Predict the 3D structure of the following.
Amino acid sequence: MNKLSATLLATAAMATSAQAGDVRHLMGPIMANPTPGQIEAKCAFYIGEIDLRRDALLGDQAAPTIANTLERIDNMFGLSNAAGGEFTLYRQVLTTPEQRDAAADCEVRIDSLYNELGLSREVYDRLVTLDLTDADAVTQRYAETLRRDFEASGVALDDEQRTRINAIKDELGELSAAFARNIANDKSEITFTLDELTGVPEDFIASRELNADGSLTLTTSYTDYQPVMQYADNDEVRRRFAELYDLRAWPENDAVLAQMFTLRAELAQLLGRENYAQYALADKMLQEPARVRQLMAEVEQAARPIAQNDYARMLTVLQDLQPGAERIEPWQGNWLSPKTQQALFDYDPQDARQYFAYNNVRDGVFRLTERMFGIEIREWDIPLWHEDAEAFEVIENGEVIGHLLLDSHPRPGKYTHANNVHLYPGGPGQPPLTSVVQNLPKGDHATGLMEHSQVTTFLHEFGHALHGIFGSNGRWYGQYYLDVEWDFIEAPSQMLENWVYDYDTLATFAVNAQGETIPRDLVEKMNKARYFNRGLFEMAQLGLTNTSLRFHTEELPEDLGAATRGWRNEYTLIKVPETSQMQAAFGHLDGYSAYYYTYGWSRVIAEDLYARFVAEGINNPAVSMDYRRAVLEPGSSRAAGDLIADFLGREVTVDAFKASLNKGME
Ligand SMILES: [Zn+2]
């Protein structure tokens, strides 16, 4: 064999190994219960594989092609996304602090590598000279999005500026890890006598261990906090617990946030933006702070009168219980809301609670989505890190199209909220792996009764997971569902929440310990009560949206707590207590930075999408399959606005959202 043909062969082999599907076998399998050493080794492995591909890319003297450039870049992003998801899951769920810390360290390293790749001039230079004339539309969009992302990260700046940007991003990655760690490690406890806990459901108290003196010590985990705030009759108990809850990770996280906001402002300035919000919104559906403010004004205009009506109705109920009460205190809202729903609509969430045991709810959510999307979900027998963790296969036409991990119950040191963590993208021969980490009661009717709101949360997170399974099988790793515009990402899950208000759906799984199905009239009352408090809710959300935007458009305030209280109070009708330092545990200030509005905007989209289901039958599989194909499956291979328009046949509007809010006046 002469030298030339050897070179050609080598080039051909290289091109083959750069096929997009080729790195899939390097992702996973998930390690059941890895030691810190195994986590570090896996981290080093991922980094090594990414480095190999970068070296091959930069050492390639051939003119840039889709195979030798775009596919290699995509493989690097595919590997770093997979690694990021895997270590995030380990950090959230593994059982010892040493394991979680090792995973958090890897997250920081992967994040740093990802940022460095995104600022690589050499990679960018190959990308801009890539000939795309014969490429399909999806590939063209991908290359253009990548170019835009490179440019937005400052790839065109000089070496010194790019070095500074890298350093800032590394530091932000470390701050983000510290912020989450401080929240997870908050060990605040509060002790009540059983007498003080009058009103709190007995099965909740029975599921906890009492102290020797008969009192009960609770933590600031949401599973402990929520039942007390909703059911305890004693105002002082709720006031004390709320005060402690709003001090989580404070004061330590104030320092973290201050550094974070300062560095973000510097980053924005280096990138030629007026503030960080402008930078963070550039690749979102709404694109700029001015449009967010416009949306906020529109929502406020619709929500404020409804919130005032909600407030007045709730105050009347409070005055019956506490004659002379002049206003609703923040620790009274969650407790008064069900009382008002009872007074106005004869609806008591406690009546519904008996029908929602975790095991039934999980199975019911599975069966619902099976019917909607033509899939089957069955157990998957693999070793996992804890007995509470569960694994499932998602099957379509006899073929496994996705894997799902569920870790649904609280334990010390675990992530304290609910979220979807996506691990591996999918493709031919290897289905995607996604996970839901949440904190719900465990078991059947004896121990696992859930609030209806928790059922909603489960379905919501499961909706993200399904989006992950359907929307991660595209041509390019970098066009999976998590790369959609982030102000769209909540819409599919928020829309899905509607189904746990549907009697026909609930009747398939909501049964009490006696085996009786949830009564139809209870579901009707639940639906009447549903729109009560939406006005107050939207106003409270606007307060948080305002906080998220203002921290990223204004000078760093001296007192973060005072600023947060002030910004929330511009909107919320139930005033924030002077002791509140909720910013310290407001995880979205890290993850969502300036675009917390994404929840509100997603509700606008969700209502609009749902309107088509209402018109054509919410349990009509033709509509849900159409929705799956038009909105979920494309991932981010097309602009979110186009996906929505495909399904609706027109652009999204706020009309359905406003109509839904107005139901609160009925
Ligand atoms: Zn969500």
